[in-house]
Structure formats: C-alpha cells, structure tokens
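Appendix B. Chain record.
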Amino acid sequence: MSINRPYRSAMDLPTEIPIFPLQALLLPRGQLPLNIFEPRYMQMIDDALATHRVIGMIQPHVTEPPPALEHVGCAGRITQLAETGDGRYVIALTGIARFRLGPEKGVAKPYRVAEVDFSPYALDFDPEPDMAQVDRAGVVRALREFAEANELGIDWKSVEKAETESLVNALSMMSPYGVKEKQALLEAYDVKSRADMLIAITETELARAAKTPRAPLQ
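Structure tokens predicted for this chain:
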C-alpha cells in the first residue's frame, strides 16, 4: 500500500505514539478500516492528524478497563478519513512497522500513550520484501478449503490478481481467528513465516471443525 510519507527506518517514526487497544490486526503495508466513535479516540485521531499521523494498534489480553496489552503491536499512518455527520470518523490505517511496547507515559490525554521500539523489526521497512519463498499456492488452497467448509463466496479473480504479500496480510487481518492466533500472525518473522502460520492455523481450525458434530435440527 503506497503512502505519501515514506518510512525508510525507525528513525523516521516517533518514539512515543498513541496506543489504540483493539482486538484487530494491522500488518505492515496492510490497510485497516476503523469506525471511531468514542470521544477519547476521536481526540486521539485529531491529535495524531495535528502531529505525525501515526497511531499504534495493539491487541488487549482482556477487555476490562484498563486492558492489559500484548507486547507487540503495529504502527499505522492515517491515510484516509471521512466525517460521518453523526459524530464519528471512518478512517483507514496503513501499516508501517511493528513495534515492541515500552513504558506507558503519564500524559494529560484521555487515551494511552507509550514509548515504542521499532528496532527489532527493521525488515518491515523493506519496500519490496522477497516473496520467492512464500507458499502462495498453499495459502490459496487453505483459503479455498476454508471457504468451502464455511460456504463463503470468494472473488477468486481478485485473489489471483493480488500481490503475494497483500494476499497473505489481507487474509491474516480478515481471518476469524482469536487474539492468540492473530498475535502469532503479527509476530511471525516475515511474510513467508506468516503464510506458513496462516496455513497451519487454518488447517487446524478445519480439522477441529470436522471433528465437532453438528447440532441436530429442531
């Protein structure tokens, strides 16, 4: 996903960013649509737009406030924003790079701000990662089996046209799996590892579903 502001290394990013705890996955160069309606997160978006346009997406362990957070998230740049007229923002975040969560900062803001470290994920800044070793065929096969098992309609022409990284990341982000599985996909070393993990998780879920008896019709 192209953006106007290039990020070539961790040096191009702020060391403290707003944190958005949400059970949703953002990956480097992926795009995540979000519906923002809570006042504290409306202010977070306003503040980000006025500064560096970057927020950190991170999954919570639990949902009770304040939620404990996972130790790895992904920073995203606000690349689209629309006002709805009823007090909401509809935005799109484009993933930049993963980060390791540092100490939270005591700031006079209604949302959370934390120090972040991008240095463990320098490969996320590579604009053209090597896709030669990615098992694209295995990813498509797993998607086809999952779609058939769940009677899902898939636009296979779009799947065929999608670039390999975009395909792997989009399927990882849209997958119906839980926090643990999505966190594992986020923390996978590279796109090849993420594709292999996505195939394995999908095959495990299909096998589990096949062993679960269907409820009798009433």
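Further analysis of this model is presented in Appendix C.
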